Amino acid sequence: MMRAHALTTQRGAALLLLVALLGLGAASLLISAFGRQDAEAARQQRTLATLAQAREALIGFAAANGRLPRPASSAIDGRERAAECASDADCSGFLPWVALGVAGLDAWGKVLRYSVTPEMSRAPIVSFSAVANRTVLQHKAQGSLAYVAGQEQCDVSAQCLPAVVFSQGKEGYGTAANGVKLANSGRGNIDEAANEAATTSFVTGNTVDDMLVWVTLPALYQRMRAARTLP
């Protein structure tokens, strides 16, 4: 009788130990999952801060030089490209981080992208005739695209954006710090594919993990006028 009681006690203790181990395993998984989420949120916040610094540096560059910078020479050379932009495609590439004195990578180690209106990259900017032509769109609830900044037709009376800067985010496309083009790690990410090849119109929002900021024309002209570099 005592032996049977001892066996029952041992089995109960073993069961409690198993339950405890399972609980520790589940807790460990939860902590790990939350840790990954926290780390990802931290990367997003660092990237947003880097993008904000880049935007401020772009406006400061224009205030000092009478124009916005051209894109970087390459993904591994952050100096401004020497040749003037002959087209919108020429003025779309990588952020000239050396010329701006800012970080050139996002928190995932991808080189920041940059696109500037060609007219805004040549001094002097003729404010009464120059047309800023970059736009940003976002998907509405029903799936159609709507303009967040700019509109379909950009002209002197309805200006769009002088420049856009963006991180290509964790997933999908991008270029590493060594200049190697990264393989697309997502599926069905047509908006990210569009941003990869875009020259004037860019997409932001829930359908894409690219993170965009942009320079507005009023903010640009206000700083340039204060610095007396806008005729």
Defining traits:
three-stranded mixed β-sheet, 231 residues, alpha+beta, four-stranded antiparallel β-sheet
What would your notes on this structure say?
The chain is an alpha+beta fold. The protein is built from 4 helices and 7 strands. The strands form 2 sheets. A 4-stranded antiparallel beta sheet has the order 1-2-5-7. It has a 3-stranded mixed beta sheet with strand order 4-3-6. It is elongated. The relative contact order is 0.15.
List the topology elements.
Blueprint: H1 2-65, E1 92-94, H2 97-100, E2 113-116, E3 135-139, E4 145-149, E5 163-167, H3 190-197, E6 201-204, E7 211-215, H4 217-226
Parallel strand pairs: 3-6
Antiparallel strand pairs: 1-2, 2-5, 3-4, 5-7
Overall average residue pLDDT: 89
- Give the strand order of the largest sheet, numbering strands 1, 2, ... along the chain: 1-2-5-7
Sketch the topology as an H/E string, one letter per element.
HEHEEEEHEEH
Strand residue content:
5-15%
DSSP E strands, number: 7
Question: How would you sum up the major sheet?
Answer: 4 strands, antiparallel
Terminal CA distance: 103 Å
Low-confidence stretches: none
Compose a concise summary of this entry.
The chain is of the alpha+beta class. The protein has helices spanning 2-65, 97-100, 190-197, 217-226, and strands spanning 92-94, 113-116, 135-139, 145-149, 163-167, 201-204, 211-215.
